[in-house]
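Long-time lurker, first post. I've been practising inverse folding by hand and with some scripts of my own, and I keep getting stuck on stretches where the structure tokens seem ambiguous. Below is the full token string for one chain I'm working on. Before anyone asks, I'm not after the true native sequence, just a reasonable design that respects the backbone. If someone could post their per-position residues I'd love to compare against what I wrote down in my notebook.
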């Protein structure tokens, strides 16, 4: 009987977590494509936010940060800067179709959103 109760509780908790994620938010990112020694290079945060908005993806919050990976220090090399957006979870597929990725694929990224 205890095992049955344990299984039921586990299923309930798993279902509750999946439901929360489906209705919650997700962090996505895309590389800015900026290069070292060229401070104006890359795609601005606002431009990417507009790209998402044009595809009917609500941008709830955004920031610019580093992907957490080491980069070689030389002019013309990539900076590792990413534009990060908080969007509703149901919009993830639409964002991925635009070339954005779930932040979870970046193991070293430390994203802090100021607008939370």
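-- Answer (accepted) --
I ran through it position by position. Result:
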């Amino acid at each position: 009987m205890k095992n049955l109760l344990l299984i039921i509780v586990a299923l309930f908790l798993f279902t509750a977590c999946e439901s929360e994620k489906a209705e919650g938010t997700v962090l996505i990112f895309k590389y800015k494509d900026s290069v070292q020694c060229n401070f104006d290079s890359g795609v601005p945060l606002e431009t990417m936010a507009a790209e998402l908005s044009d595809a009917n993806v609500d941008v709830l919050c955004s920031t610019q940060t580093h992907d957490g990976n080491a980069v070689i220090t030389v002019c013309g090399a990539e900076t590792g800067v990413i534009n990060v957006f908080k969007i509703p979870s149901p919009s993830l597929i639409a964002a991925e179709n635009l070339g954005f990725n779930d932040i979870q694929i970046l193991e070293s990224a430390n994203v802090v959103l100021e607008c939370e």
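A couple of notes from the structure itself: The chain has three helices and four strands. Strands lie at 25-31, 61-66, 81-88, 101-102. Happy to go over any region you disagree with.
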